[in-house]
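I hope you will forgive my troubling you with a question about protein structure. The matter concerns a single protein, recorded as an amino acid sequence and a row of backbone structure tokens. Please examine both parts with care and let me know of anything in them that strikes you as inconsistent. Here, with my thanks, is the record as I have it:
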Amino acid sequence: MIKRLLSGSILAVALIAAAATVSTAGEGPTLAYGLEGQLRALLSHLDEPGDEPGTEGGMQVRTARLDVRAKSEDGRMNGRFMVGADRASGGIEIEYAYADLALPRYWRLRVGQFKPEFLREENVGSTDQLAAERSYTADYFTVDYAEGASLLRDFARTRVALSLHDGSYSAGTDLGADRTDLALAARGEYALRGDRKRCAGFRALPDEGRAVLLGAAVDFEQGEDPDVLKVGLDATAAMPGTSLFAAVIRQYLTGSHGDAIAEQTGLVLQAATCLAPQDWEAFGRWEHLDFDGVYHRNKGAGVSGAGAAVDNEALDIVTLGVNWYRDGQSSRWTLDLVRALDRIPVANTGSGLLAGSAAGQTVVRLQYQFKL
């Protein structure tokens, strides 16, 4: 552990020094870096704790990252390298490590480790969300970090991403250490109205125009049982002082002989409005998850909750909160309340939701984040 921390610290210092040196040179390739951090206090209460404690509380450094971005002198190649503290062990882990290469007709080839584009919530960075944490539903269906290659193109009103990757949660895994042999993902976005970049985040900005962004995505992963097919549709609307977001996700789990195991559904509805003064923002989110009798995330063997039984129950979660922006997303306080109306089959430590009571639970979260 000490060796991992030391090596990570040395790497971080070296990257910062390199960035400062190149940035001051003012010529040739460019290199820039950023720092992100989220400190969170949580209090979780189970309605009917049984043999487990009814209330748990504590503090958590949810995010601590160094983000380095580079661009070649002619602009035809750029890359990203992000390292962060592992939330469980405190060691240093690589999150993004990829290069983008310019191809003819404005296409780009991305090679390395990244998040294959699938869910809209995952495309919006963790420090650009409304609530302290993404939805439980997004965390359940995410592809997360993976190794692979993507073809990307940004048109005036549309964006296309096609990915060949190594499966969900395959970041940093060796051959045979993950559950997937082959995975394909695709996502398309279309600006029905306004500038597509207006919907880059979820914040309810009071002084910007209207925009509507539609998205559709698919991800297929084949390897160890079960095979996984995910499809999703989403819509984002931005208006002066208001933002809206809706998503529906379907996941099909199939055995090696084509036998259907489960058909799962996730729904997310989210809204935000700017308060007076404009540095304050109120938001709300409702999510629904129908597990169809199986809890399954396509992680490697030994991961907690990879195959938990959930009978035929569903899960509804409501989140309400406020944001106080001291310097935009660069400095922000978030206070929110999460109410799970049903049993949580597998804990989500980032959300503060604990596995347990069928009667539900309540979580209060206070978070400060900085982004430099």
Helices lie at 2-25, 120-123, 136-141.
